[in-house]
Amino acid sequence: MAAKKACESFSKSLIEDVHKWGCMKQTGVSLRYMMEFGSKPTDRNLLISGQFLHKELPIRIARRAIELDTLPYGLSEKRAILKVRDWYLDSFRDLRSFPEIKDINDEKEFTQMIKAIKVRHNNVVPTMALGVQQLKKGMDPKIVYEDLDEIHQFLDRFYLSRIGIRMLIGQHVELHKPNPAPHVVGYIHTKMSPVEVAKNASEAARAICLREYGSAPDINIYGDPSFTFPYVPTHLQLMVFELVKNSLRAVQERFMYSDKVAPPVRIIVAEGIEDVTIKISDEGGGIKRSGLPKIFTYLYSTAKNPLDEHTDLGTDDRITMAGYGYGIPISRLYAKYFGGDLQVISMEGYGTDAYLHLSRLGDSQEPLP
């Protein structure tokens, strides 16, 4: 049925082209390569980068469009999923109809187009979340959501691929900026201070906690602010923000009606030879051992769901304190994208420790789903 809908609004030849490109091999790049290549954004390098993306992006986008059309449990037929699938097909069509990039003028035009593609896909995560909610609504309430392995695996692949596509487009677009800040190469900061990023992310999370609850626990950060390593600050900001937001909510809700002062959330930044590790510790009561596997799934949240059929995703950019159930699994994918990981260890009745491992070697290739 979903495939039929695709064919109604997209030509048969386009759908055939999607299937052809979806079978081609993807090419992964490493953080180190992006950094070294982007450190000299000459016309020649920008042309090479544009030509690479002209071939690479349709392959990655085609793979996701095909998968969106073949999901189990009738997920492909949900309205929100069809909307996302159409965005992917539109973007594939735009890329494939763009002629060969021969000179720097072609490359500039191409850059404007992929910039527009990136904007088109801005709301993919909440729209996918809405599609999954639409699926959950129609399912037997006795179904154990974390057992729906195929959907979790698909969403992991889908979001990991999305991180990669947005990184490649964003990196290419940023390299066109005429006067980059010192030590900045596109999206990458070659001397990023994890302590500084953690501080900014924590302040943003605390502001939201204050807005939603009227008060917020303190946050204490331990680590050397002068220590730096090459990484993508926006990725780290997102991960720390999500983890701190969860910790603040847990502590706030546990101590809201208590006479005791809410204990602070602690962030520790440790510098190793292979990894930089950031530990976020709270005394928010922890998670039941049986609930731990669920926190990495996309169909689970302990909070009230902020999405419903009537949500206009285009207008409200306010970040709610919780509810998608996506913060933790997507943060783990951001960590994995450059060779890191995220682990959560809980003491039920006391609190939770989240360990964010970031690879500082920058050599690992993108994981390509």
Automatic annotation (TrEMBL):
User: Which superkingdom heads the taxonomic lineage of this protein's source?
Assistant: Eukaryota
Where is each Histidine kinase domain found?
233-362
Does the record's keyword annotation contain S-adenosyl-L-methionine? Answer: no
Compartment list: Mitochondrion matrix
- Kindly list the biological process annotations in GO that this record carries: regulation of glucose metabolic process
> Which keywords accompany this UniProt record?
ATP-binding, Kinase, Mitochondrion, Nucleotide-binding, Transferase
Q: Which reaction does it catalyse?
A: L-seryl-[pyruvate dehydrogenase E1 alpha subunit] + ATP = O-phospho-L-seryl-[pyruvate dehydrogenase E1 alpha subunit] + ADP + H(+)
Signal peptide extent: none
Entries under Gene3D superfamilies matching the protein: Alpha-ketoacid/pyruvate dehydrogenase kinase, N-terminal domain, Histidine kinase-like ATPase, C-terminal domain
Enzyme class at the top of the EC tree: transferase
Q: Name one Pfam family in it.
A: BCDHK_Adom3
Q: Which residues form a coiled coil?
A: none
Q: What is its EC number?
A: 2.7.11.-
Major subcellular site: mitochondrion
What InterPro entries would the database entry show? AK/P_DHK_N_sf, BCDHK/PDK_N, BCKD/PDK, HATPase_C_sf, HATPase_dom, His_kinase_dom, Sig_transdc_His_kin-like_C
Q: Which GO terms describe its molecular function?
A: ATP binding; pyruvate dehydrogenase (acetyl-transferring) kinase activity
Q: Name one GO cellular component term.
A: mitochondrial matrix
Concerning its family, UniProt says: Belongs to the PDK/BCKDK protein kinase family.
Put simply, this protein is called Protein-serine/threonine kinase
Q: Which organism is it from?
A: Gossypium darwinii (Darwin's cotton)
